[in-house]
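Q: Could you write out the predicted structure for this multi-component system? I'm mainly interested in how the pieces pack against one another.
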Amino acid sequence: MSRDPRFDILFEPVAIGPVTAPNRFFQAPHASGATNAMPRVRAGLRGVKAEGGWGVVCTGACSIHPSCDDAPLPYATLWDDDDVRAHALMTDAVHEHGALAGVELFHGGGAVLNRSTRLPPVSPSGKGWMSTHATFMSSLRPRAMDASDLRDLVRWQAEAARRARQAGFDIVYVYAGMGYLPYEFLLPDYNARTDAYGGSMANRVRIVQEMLDATRDAVGGEIAVALRISLEELRGRPGENDETEAHEAIALLSPHTDLFDVKMDSSPTDCGPSRFREEGAHEPVVDFVKSRTDKPVVGVGRFTSPDAMVSQVRRGVLDFIGAARPSIADPFLPSKIEAGREDEIRECIGCNMCIASWHEGVLVRCTQNPTFGEEWRRGWHPERVRPAGSTDRVLIVGGGPAGLECALTLGRRGYTVTLAEAGRELGGRLLFEAALPGLSAWRRVIDYRLGRLAVMRNVDIFAESRLDADQILDFGFERVVIATGAHWTKDLYSDLEVPMAGPDHPSVFTPDDIAAERSPEGRTVVFDFDNYVIGGLLAERLAGAGLEVTYVTPAGGASAWTINSNEQPYVHQRLEDTGVVVRTLERVTAFDGGTLTLAHIFTGSQRSAACDSLVVVGARRSNTDLYDALHARRAEWEEAGIKSVDLTGDALTPGAVAHAVFFGRAAAETLDGNPLEAFRRDAPFYTDPDLDRMRPPAWVT
Ligand code: ADP
Ligand code: SF4
């Protein structure tokens, strides 16, 4: 197949100052969790994107100086020669496939807390970000920068840019976004300076201009200089000499950069979950940029549809299609469009599990692409698989996300696979979950896999086929993988914060009951200690159906964990909009069908409330009956020809869909060896363990 001519425009080369990108697919800087302590993992996950056709592949935030230390959040550094060596692995991996490598140099100013380097944080006027998100809270406040600090900042940027060039980067960023230091100069909220760097817009952009110019001087004009800038706030503020301050800033900065990378100001608006924000949601903020500059513009918007991408270019919104999440979900998105295989794109579902990994300080994980981050350490690849290690026939029981991923990977490996699903439709838990308000994009997990499986001759799928141990022993498949999922329990939550037996009353419901259309009635309490999306979603759905709903959680906010996936602010808004009353820091201790008893989790003080139905969204337990039954009859396996019976997905360990897909892939990868625990461990570059810098200073005895 060849590319549809209507997508030709996406494959045009575009100049960025002195370098030229081979096409318009631009993997914009995004966190990966792979810091300089994991240089090979990092090179693996960036390199695979270049292999998949992205014309530009960038790092995530890369600190220019130890006074910018974002620990425990994962970030890269370009502080010394060892860092140069670490990044050179990534630039080599990207260049190998003809792409350009970009580095997002950053200084976090008052938004980073230097918890590891213990240097004093700095900001334009001593104002820090007073976040309500615990990860970003600190009693340490930044100090105001004086004139020598400003000179230092420009020098650090230049020194890091020189190292970036040494490391082989083609594009070097100045990052004036997301609350970080140069951005703090742009907004009077942070910047109360009365010198040449505060006041008018021309003054507020000055430090950014100086950093861009210093970067250009440092890299000798041979590689490109890019500016990443957040425009949401500025766009909302009328300008003195132009429509808005965003218009003014772009015009003032344009002569100093080779590329604008434009974005929103906060993670929830920049990386909005699909549940609350559409593809291309940034456009109303960034649509003007090309009217104020002749430099190329890149922007993101969770673009997965090639038609939407073409439209961005043709309508003059963007020159490059920036992507973080779509490039994680499918590193081969560009090459699939190029080959006319757009229907094979593994589209991002906008669940933000990837972003949550950053908030949790770990290597990125993706619901759609379980290989992401595993390229180097486990040798997994998003498109290629190891050939089958035997001619064993495999039976997979259960067609949820885990069973489907396992079948797809084993099918690609060349195994003869049979998948049996009890239900009428394939998809498991996602059939219900993707039908909850705003989650329709999550169906892509099923649709992508069913689409690929449909063209595989070595995979047979049988719906409406609930299997038991007798049948499986009769069939005699050599390998059996059990992917029978998990179920929600009615357990409540003890004062030790563990599940405890709850009331077995007919008016107590679980999400499984609601999925099976057994619905609560009357005054309904949703008690959520699962803390992910389902509790909030059920409260929203039940309120939408006209019930009087109270949402109760022992956590400090609704769907508490979703602060990590950028959903929580929107969840609260939605619950308020749908009339759901939210009660936090409380646990349900008893329910008799008419009265609910609750206790405050810190004080223990009790209260009761009238309640007709209780929905418990708490503990889940694996469905292992079939697995247990087969293992109880192990003595019969040999005669039946069975060599192994393994668990995967929620049946192995209950989790989010991302975990189920990962374990489904793992079951397929490990079927014939390569146990999951046998992964390569990465290590940082370190020139000489006896270096002077490791010795205590002379005055320490
Ligand atoms: P996971 O997230 O691990 O994929 P799901 O709960 O989404 O788990 O899917 C499990 C699937 O297994 C469900 O679709 C369920 O109908 C199916 N299933 C459970 N028990 C059996 C069985 N004995 N035979 C066939 N399918 C089963
Ligand atoms: Fe998209 Fe979810 Fe994967 Fe992130 S984790 S790239 S949002 S599918």
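A: Regarding packing and overall arrangement: The mean pLDDT is 96.
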